[in-house]
Structures are given as structure tokens and as C-alpha cells.
Amino acid sequence: MTNARTIAAVPPNRRAIATAVLLLSSAIISPSLHAKLFPSLKADDFRRISFVGRCDQNQWSTDKGDKLEVMMSAEPGESCEARMHFREPQELKNLASLQFMVRSSRPKQRMAIELVGNTEGDPEDSLARTRPFSVSDDWNPDALRFQKVKKGWQPKAISEIRFIAMSETGRSAPSLFIRDVRFSGTPKNAAEGTAEAAATEGGANDVASPVAADIPLDRQLVCVAANDLPSLQNPIPHGAPATLSSEFKKLFGMLMIKSAAITATQRGIAGACLAWLLAAWWYMHRKKPSLVTLISPLYEINTRTWKSTRDSDGVHRLGGFNAITPNDLKNIKSSGFSSIWLMGIWDIGPKVRAISKRYGQDFLGSPFAIRDYNVSEELGSEEDFNGLIDRAHAAGLKVIVDFVPNHMGLDSDWLNRHPEYFIHRVPTPAEIELSDQELEKRYPGYFVHRTPSYPQGHKRVPKTILVAYGKDPYFYPWIDTAQLDYAEPGLRRLMTEILCRMARQVDGVRCDMAMLVLREQIKVHRHPEMSWEAFNRMMPEEFWPEAIHATKRVKPAFIFMAETYWSMEGYLQQLGFDYTYNKPLYEAICSALQSANAEGLLNFMRLLGNDFLSRGVHFIENHDEDRAMNTLGEERQRAAATVLCTLPGVALLHQGQLEGKRERLPVQRAVPIHQETVNVSLRGFYEGLLKATSKPIFREGRMNVLYSNNPSFITYARVNESEKAIVIVNTSNQTQKGSVTLMPGLNLKADSAYELQDLFYEMKSPETRRQSTVVPTYHYPASHLITQGLYVELGPFDAHIFIVEPHPGFKLTDRVIHGLQSINEGLPFPRVARRILGQTMVRSSDQPSNPR
User: Is the pTM higher than 0.85?
Assistant: First the structure.
């Protein structure tokens, strides 16, 4: 075994390699790099985090570094558990201890820890628990050491961690705070500890550790509460940065020196070490993907319709969560999508279903008139839903679900538990004598409800109330819903808690009609009789900033997407929404393609600006809009989709849109009436378009609208630090010709030539590709593009998506001459001296330059 004492005996040529390897191993297990190899656990490491037992309060959140923090306290004489279920079981093979920081709000709080481990020969998970131990009121490091236990019980992995807070009878429990939870590797030095662990009886799963005398082995412990972190921190050899750097220099020198003393094998080992170090450095410092990259394009799945069928007798068979298989998700991902929106997953009550059947016998109730935020039993259990989330994440897809803030279904149990959370009125004593029909006729827009729990003083009593139907102020009420009242602080807290719970499961929410819960809407339309002074006392701030801030403490990358209208997009973005619907853009795109004139659309894009567009959700159909095949047809749809997928922001595509479906399903219907065939050509076009626009420039590049002398052309550029792209779309059903001015939007360099590669070439029709003038790649000198622009000739609803790159055929001598000429422009040589130095040093002011 090579260690610090044996290195001196190594020949000089091998010493650099041996020392670098030892120092590299030391660095790996040193505290400076230990955190990168055994980082603090994050929320994404867990499939689910839940609290069980009698908890007085409980919460988990994440800090700025996305590290997990847990807070909980138990009711008097009870216990409260934080259960953290790993997405993937943590193998004990390379683990020695579980480390964490812990403190209590008061001294002598007691806690225990349980681990659920997968074991050999036992299909059931086996539980091991520490003895209760005390926690001080200062942050203290603590640890559990893993060890071999009773023969015949060999834990292989940890699938769940449980932190347990305990309180004494008759006393309110202090709060317990836990953070910086992490696993560690072998606690000995890298050289000696590995050998000892390998020699220990029980193999790699057994890291030797003394058993506390007061913990009986018949408890089958997998760990003991050591409260003894210093004993885990055995000395580790550390290499000083200067020494490490010098050895790396020697390694690099060995690669460069051509000497017989340095064998090819030694040179190869040195090269491998350097390559490994460079790879490790890149991994630790790689650029993290941006939020836009993670969510766009977004695929809307109508969950109730996925693989659902109707029997000959009219009975529905819903596919449910388990019908969305790993292969389905893999296909969605391979088609080019980054995320899915599971629309319509929440529980729907029997009254809502019954009301919907007045309008269609096959209606199953609106998925936006929910009974509670529990998944629909028709689609599967909570475990089935969690399994779907796990499958989506394994496929590399983010998961978005619905949040319906404005209303609940009229048979929601909230009406019985918290009727004060709804817009309502209490009938007068005289009105109580009226029948329900007479009351509802007297108060249009309200329905009668008898609640067993109406707040009255310090108690709750049964009462008959009139509850307002949910509604958009400019349309008729939705008679299957009850209107929520955000002037109630309790409702705002409850809805925030629901959002925080969602953040622990999924990656974002699409907030239905988000603008309806703005303060102005609530005051004007829900409480018109109340003065602004009184209303400001009840609801002093907007709901959304409070809820978004609280939710993002749980998961900072949690996505808030707002369905909104009435030009409220910018205001909701200011309140904290990551993305907002952009229906005006949808209307502008449709108008341009119907009129064959893009000027209005381009002016609208200029008005919106790049920053606003980058936070927009763009679509040409969704469950609320008609099918794109009906509004645009196939050819216009291809042109519209090209714009949709190349603009900044989120491209939203709807289930069935890629296949060219025409039947628009009401949200209450789970199975289409008509069986439509797949439009194979359109499906292939969408897959090609999504693949072509998956480049980072279409997710992160800025947009600059370009001028064209043909009003039928939609023209703009996408530009980032290293890439340039040009998008040109013909909105006409006739062949159109024209020039596109590329400057200043494209920022071309005058001393270069450029290659324009058309990503849209493979999506053109075979007839178009057969034309001699249509090729996948074009080459132009920069002077031509700058002074004359780009000449374009496009067929009906055809397009170009050009990636603009420096032309590799541009000669090196030309580059040098252009470089010298640019330098010369700034030199103070007189004209005569420049002529003596030669033609290369003549300025443009001395004689006209010859165009390339």
C-alpha cells in the first residue's frame, strides 16, 4: 500500500505520479472536497418527505444552496416523525456514517433516529432505531456510525431516514431543527482505511465501529447515536495547495519531456491523471441549465383521456396514472419535450359529476371543480401518482400540475370544515323560512348550503348559508363551483400550505385563472359593499407574492405558470410568476397567417420586448382553445408552429396537436367521440421541428426583430454569446420574394464570411427540396450580408431557420489581412508612410476598398 512513508523509496521518475495520486486521494477525502463527493442532501434526493405522529408544527424547506432543512415539534407526551424516502436507496457499501447538524429551541429536547434498510433474504423493509438522546439549544454536529449487526441480518441499502422528536407529558415541546444532512465515506484515511475495511469480516457492507455498551444487539441496530463526531474525524493527510500544484506541474512535464527515462507507460499514467483531474474540474464548475431550458417545450397531457376507452354499453375505462408508461414518457422526451403538464388529476365530487351530465351523458365532471387536492381515485392512488412522477423524472421530464385558486367544487368538504373561506351570505331570520328554491331565486349566483361548522364566537355551530358560485366577473357563473374568498387570512394560509405540499412532489403548477385572486378583483367583484379601508385591513397584500415566496423556500426552482388574460401578464410577472399565458400573441400569429401580413405581429413582438416574451407561454392550441387544425389547417399550422418553437419563452403543445387531431374535447369528457387517424406527415414535421429547435440558442438567446421589404415575412434573429440564428416565415399562400436586413440585429463582423445552415431544410416538402435553388447550406461574405441583406424566396407557408456560423473556408491569409487593416485604422501613420509599407496597410480613406 502506497503511503507518505513509502513515497521516498520510489524512483524519481515515478515519484511525481505516486505523490500526485496520493495527494489526489487525500484531496478527495479532505473536508474541502468531501462536501462535493458527499454533498448535503437536497429535496430532489427524496421521492417523498412526510410528517407523521402528533406534530404540533412541522415544516421542511431548502436554503439558498438547495440544502434540506427540517423543523418539527411534538404535542405534549407525543412524538413527531419526519420521514424522508429516497428516490434511489443509498447503498451502504461506501458509507460509514450519517452526519447532520441539530439544535433545539430549548435545551434537552430528546430525539431518536430510525433507518429503513433493504436487507438480504427479507422481502420486508427492516427498521432499526437509536436510543433517544438529548439535543442542546446550540447548533451541534452529530453523527450515526454504521456497523455490522446480528448475524443473518445484513442491510444492503438505506431507503428511508426518520428523524423523531419526542416531548415530555404535560409540557409543550420545543422545536427541533435539523440541517446539513449528509452521508460520509469511510472515516479512516484513504490509504489505510480502505484496506482495513476490505479485510473486515462481513465485507464491504461492514465498516468496523465499536458498539455502544448500553445498546443491546437484540434491537438489531444498524447504527448507534454516537453524539461523538470527533471520533469520526480521524487524521487525514492533506496536501498543501502549493505541493499539489507542483506535482501537477511535474505530471504535465512528464507528458512533454521526450526522454528515455520516462517510459510510455509512465507518460500514459500521467496523462490519464491529468485527464481525470480536468474532467473532475469541469464537472464541478459546469454551467447549470437555465430555468427556461428545463421547462420548454411543454407537453399538455389530458390525464383522464390518456389511453381511456368507452365500452359498447357506454362504460368508461380510464387509463389512469399507470397507463402513462416509461415507454410513453421516453417517447415524449425523445420527441423533444422538456416537461409535461398533467391536466385534470384532482378529486371530483359526485355533485359536480351529476351537474356535468346535464350537458353530456358521457361527462365525468370538470377537473377544475375539484373536491380537494387529493388525486382522483379513478386515475389511481397516491402511490400510483408518485410512481408516475418518478417515471417522468427518470425520463428527464419535469412535471407540472394544476392549481385552481379561484374556486372549489360545490361539494368540497371545505364548505363543511371552513365555510368562512367562501364568498357567502347568511339569510336573515325571515329568509330562513323560505324554501331553497326561493332563496336561490332571491339571490342569483348563490346556492344554499347547510354547514355543520359555521364559526360563531369561539365555537362552531350548524347554519344555513348562501354560497356564491365561482365565476369570471365577465361571464356567467360556473354552477359546479363555489367561490373562494381571499380576504380570509385562513384561506390564504391553507392555499400556501397546499402549494408547499405540491412543491415537495412535483416541479411546478399551472395556476388556473390566476388574475381572479388579485386584490382589485376581490375587492371590486367579491366585496363591493366594503370600503377600501376595511378591505385593506383584511387583505393588506397580494396573495401571490406571499405564496410564491413561501413555496420557493421549499423548492427554489419550483415553477409558477399563470393562466391570465385582461393584459395582466406583466403585473403577475412582477408578483413573482415565472411564466404567464400569452394569448395576445396567439391571436396575432393567427391574424398574420390569415391575412398574409406579418407587420402587425412584428410590431407586437417589438412592443412586448425580449424579456417579456421570454417569460411567456406561447401556444396555438390548448384545452381551452380550438384545435389548430380547425383554426389554421395543416399548412398554416406548420408556419405558426415554427414561430411558436423559435420564440423566447415556453412553447406549449397540446395532446393530439402533433397528430393533427380535430375534435376539441370539453374538459368534462374523457373519451373522444370520433376515432381520428394520426396525420403521419404532420407528426413527422413536429418531431423534426422540436429536434431542430432544441439548440440552446432557441431557449436562451435574445430575440431581435429584423426588417424585411416584404410584409408577408415574419423575420427575427436569435442571438447569444456564441451563436446566431435567423428565422424567416412566409405567412402567405403564394411564393414570396424579398430581402431581410440583418444589421444591427445580427451583429455580423465585417471581416468574415458566413455559412447559413437551414435547419428547416429537412422539413420542407420533397417538391421544394428538389428545386435547384433550394439547398441546406448557403455561404456569403459578411460585406454582402451587411450591405445588401439576405435575399429570400419562399414558397407558401415555407420557412428558413438559419444557424449562422463563420465560414470555415474563409482563408487564413484573408483573416490576417483584415486583422492588420483593422489595426492600421488606429495607427498614427501618415499617408505616405502607409503607401511605403504596402497595400495591406492602406486605409479605406486612401482608396476605395474592393468588395469580396
Answer: no
